[in-house]
Amino acid sequence: MSSSATSHADGAASPRKREALELFRGLPRHYDALSAALSFWQDPRWRRALVSALAPSSGQRVLDVATGTGMVAAELLARCSDCSVVGIDQSAAMLARARERFVAEPSTRVELIEGQAESLPFPDASFDALSFTYLLRYVDDPAATVAELARVVRPGGRVASLEFGVPPLALARWAWRFYTAAGLPVLGRLASREWAQVGRFLGPSIRGFYERHPLQQIVGYWQQAGLENVQVRRMSLGGGIVMQASRRAESGPAPGADAQADARVVGS
Ligand SMILES: C[S@@+](CC[C@H](N)C(=O)[O-])C[C@H]1O[C@@H](n2cnc3c(N)ncnc32)[C@H](O)[C@@H]1O
């Protein structure tokens, strides 16, 4: 396993980015276990669905953006033993945990890089596939970020993402609101000071994100970025959202707004 660092000056970052950098500084130690427990063990299932949606095939080079402690990268390698994975994240603390996970792996198989999703340090079309997890709420311009992610995927390559969602059905939405407003802050407080902050932050962050960027608009960001056959899968009544698409093979203008109607939304 090797690493190369793109140093990042927190001082030059936007308030949203500074908040994300600060939030993840204190989380890596118990991140894997607590993120699973606080989602009632749904998010490992969502991560597996994300990797199934990406379906990496033999010999492919995959970029995992917002790799964090490397859980998606590990799942990618488990599914495709002769793929190579590059994990990138802006948090040095989260990456340190990922480095522990992959300490026995050769650098030809896993490479971890500190860097920004908004300006990836890779040439155009340099990956066969790209995954990203819980990223878009932390960036200032989700549409521009999706375009930057699509830029590094070769024509015909696959892109898949996992984000939290707000359940669309009234009863499930009520239960989600109750849990994120009352349950999550209490459980977070029981875990640690850092997780108490996550418990308070997560519900308003997810709700606010979809108020600013409704799901159909996010589908449009993908299409404008040159991604086609966009599919949206709501999981666990909509608490998790897995999206997948392919990078358009031909170059040319992005489709207009009516293309948004093409996105297929399924629930499970
Ligand atoms: C909730 S964690 C997800 C980690 C992991 N992918 C998983 O499956 O749990 C979100 C990660 O996104 C990273 N992140 C947030 N904004 C980013 C950005 N603009 N560029 C790169 N990484 C970012 C954070 O540092 C954090 O590690």
Description:
The chain has 268 residues and is of the alpha/beta class. It has one domain: Rossmann fold (3-Layer(aba) Sandwich). Helix content is 42%, strand content 22%. It has helices spanning 15-25, 31-38, 43-54, 71-79, 92-101, 142-151, 170-191, 193-212, 215-224; strands at 2-5, 61-65, 84-89, 110-114, 127-133, 153-164, 227-235, 240-247, 264-267. It has a 9-stranded mixed β-sheet, sandwiched between helices. Strand 2, helix 4 (71-79) and strand 3 (84-89) form a beta-alpha-beta unit. Bound molecules: S-adenosylmethionine. S-adenosylmethionine is lined by residues 20, 24, 35, 47, 66-68, 71-72, 89-91, 94, 116-118, 133-135, 138-139. S-adenosylmethionine binds next to helix 1 and helix 4.
What's this, in brief?
The chain is of the alpha/beta class and 268 residues long. The chain is built from nine helices and nine strands. Mean pLDDT is 90; it is low at 1-9 and 256-261.
The computed structural class is alpha/beta
Q: Cofactors and ligands present?
A: S-adenosylmethionine
Helix proportion:
40-55%
Biggest sheet record:
9 strands, mixed
CATH homolog superfamily: Vaccinia Virus protein VP39
What count of domains describes the coordinates? 1
Rg calculated over all Cα atoms? 18 Å
What distance separates the N and C termini? 36 Å
Question: What is the N-to-C succession of helices and strands?
Answer: EHHHEHEHEEHEHHHEEE
Unreliable parts: 1-9, 256-261
Net shape: globular
List the total number of helices.
9
Number of strands: 9
